[in-house]
Design a protein that fits this description.
Layout lengths: L1 H16 L1 E2 L2 E6 L4 E3 L3 E2 L7 E8 L2 E9 L5 E3 L4 E2 L2 E2 L1 E3 L1 H4 L6 E3 L8 E8 L6 E14 L2 E3 L3 E9 L6 E6 L2 E2 L16 E5 L6 E9 L2 E12 L1 E3 L5 E6 L4 E3 L2 E2 L5 E9 L9 E2 L5 E3 L12 E3 L8 E9 L2 E20 L4 E8 L7 E9 L5 E8 L2 E4 L9 E8 L2 E8 L5 H45 L3 H23 L1
Parallel strand pairs: 2-13, 14-20, 22-30
Antiparallel strand pairs: 1-4, 3-11, 5-6, 5-12, 6-7, 8-9, 10-11, 12-13, 13-15, 15-18, 16-17, 16-19, 19-20, 21-24, 23-28, 25-26, 25-29, 27-28, 29-30, 30-31, 31-34, 32-33, 32-35, 35-36
Length: about 475
């Protein structure tokens, strides 16, 4: 009986002198994990340290071992490119810290680890559970429209753990949950690759009040501009419209096409004729991913939906965009007063929240200045003034800012045109009259100059002048004689 009490007392004394702490550790795959093993022992003898990992169905495997002599050994599979992934820090050994640091943690590193320290032949041990959290996206680089799976995994998985997903630092709600009662987020999400799911995915696992996170990035390639369907593009009548269709730079384009969709097609979109001024760009060797198009001179009837198609490795990518055309219509309110109404018209006003009219004035030297600014879809000009011969620009705005503008040029009404023409008529008549008078004066001066030159030539021969004068007198006398007879 005394021997049993002696043995129990020795065991109790040893447990008080060399007692190790136990804990549970989470680490993200690819990061560092620190497995704690701190022992307080009064022994000054050199210690032997062994770190091992439990394997299901087999004996534990040694990860790292240090003999009392200071020699260190590593187990197979714990070396990466000639560098040991697991080791203890030598500077901490002297103070009884035998924690194991694992670099570049892998998913298969998860499990139970045992730390054994043997001072004086007695071997206390400490067990540590390492849980590795990882977000896996398959495929990590997807083509637009492909199915993508996003998985949050913890090895080993903790029971009763809650999962929360965030995308680009914002809570993510699965498409199927948007119109239903919110459920517990799943470990695995299945989504269609598009701009809505592109970016940095983060899985947050809440377990026993502790939250651990892991992240991964999903890249979606395809038509990156416009990034979504039904993008509205604004243009003014008479201007040039640009219809963008830009692919991810490193995609191999097989073929491309443009189509205009007929309005009000109930089920499958029906294609129509492209405008005569439609001009698709030909992909060059420098920019093979740019298959944008343009309309050289937009007409009001060119509005509608256009579809850009691209074939990538047998898969067809499409993007639909809507061209919204703007114009200004003018109507005469009063011909006597010369007042008119300008109306800013768009083929689709669903995104428009405000209208603004800006008066543009041009100086004699071509300088441009801006006058008054007025609000509203319509603008009424009540008086005949010089400003009516300048430009009025209608700007239309949406929630994110300005959407576009359209300009009204030259005079506003026929009444103003008539008054301007009437004022200009006397000036034109005066110019024509002065021109005719100047022409007559020039003809008279020319005739006087010719007579002067002729007389100058005759004065050079006086005898010839006498003969001509005598002959002229004789001829006059003959005519008089005949008249008397």
């Amino acid at each position: 009986m005394r021997l049993e009490f002696l043995i129990l007392g020795m065991i109790t004394l040893f447990m008080k002198g060399a007692q190790c702490e136990a804990t549970e550790v989470f680490a993200e795959a690819g990061s560092k994990a620190l497995l704690p093993c701190k022992c307080s022992s009064s022994s000054t003898l050199p210690r032997a340290i062994i770190w091992s990992k439990a394997n299901s169905g087999s004996s534990p495997s040694t990860i790292w071992r240090m003999e009392r002599s200071g020699m260190q050994y590593w187990g197979s599979g714990w070396t990466q490119k000639g560098i040991q992934r697991a080791r203890c820090t030598n500077s901490q050994l002297e103070i009884g810290d035998y924690s194991l640091q694992i670099n570049s943690v892998r998913e298969e590193d998860g499990g139970y680890y045992t730390c054994r320290v043997s001072p004086g032949g007695q071997v206390p041990q400490n067990r540590v559970l390492l849980r590795v959290i990882k977000v896996t996206i398959s495929p990590p680089v997807a083509i637009w429209g492909e199915d993508v799976s996003i998985t949050c995994n913890v090895t080993p998985w903790p029971n009763a753990a809650n999962v929360e997903w965030t995308l680009n630092n914002s809570p993510f709600v699965h498409q199927a949950e948007m119109n239903s009662i919110r459920q517990t987020p799943k470990k695995v999400l299945r989504e269609e690759a598009n701009s809505r799911v592109t970016g940095n995915w983060t899985c947050a696992v809440d377990y026993k009040g502790k939250v651990v996170r892991a992240s991964s990035t999903l890249t979606v390639k395809g038509i990156i501009n416009p990034s979504t369907d039904s993008t509205k593009l604004y243009s003014a009548v008479g201007s040039e419209a640009y219809l963008p269709c830009v692919l991810s730079p490193d995609l191999n384009l097989s073929s491309s096409a443009w189509e205009k969709l007929k309005p009000r097609s109930l089920f499958k979109p029906v294609t129509g004729h492209l405008p005569t001024t439609f001009s698709p760009s030909s992909p060059s060797s420098q920019t093979p991913w740019d298959i944008s198009a343009s309309l050289k001179e937009v007409k009001f009837e060119d509005e509608g939906k256009y579809r850009c198609s691209a074939t990538i490795g047998g898969q067809q990518l499409t993007r639909i965009m809507q061209l919204v055309v703007a114009k200004i219509e003018s109507s005469v309110v009063s011909k006597k007063k010369g007042s008119v109404t300008l109306t800013c018209q768009l083929t689709d006003t669903s995104e428009v929240t405000d209208y603004e009219w800006v008066h543009v004035v041009y100086g004699l030297n071509g300088t441009q200045s801006f006058g008054s600014i007025k609000k509203g879809k319509t603008l009424i000009l009540n008086e005949v003034s010089e400003e009516n011969w300048d430009e009025w620009v209608c700007r239309f705005y949406g929630k994110q800012g300005i959407l576009g503008n359209v300009t009204h040029h030259s005079q506003i009404t026929s009444g103003l045109t008539g008054e301007k023409s009437s004022a200009a008529s006397p000036n034109i008549a005066a110019i024509v009259g002065l021109s005719l008078l100047l022409l007559v004066l020039l003809l008279i001066l020319a005739q006087m100059y010719k007579n002067h030159q002729r007389r100058k030539r005759i004065f050079q021969y006086p005898a010839l002048e006498t003969i001509v004068h005598t002959a002229s007198n004789q001829q006059e006398e003959r005519e008089r004689s005949r008249g008397k007879k």
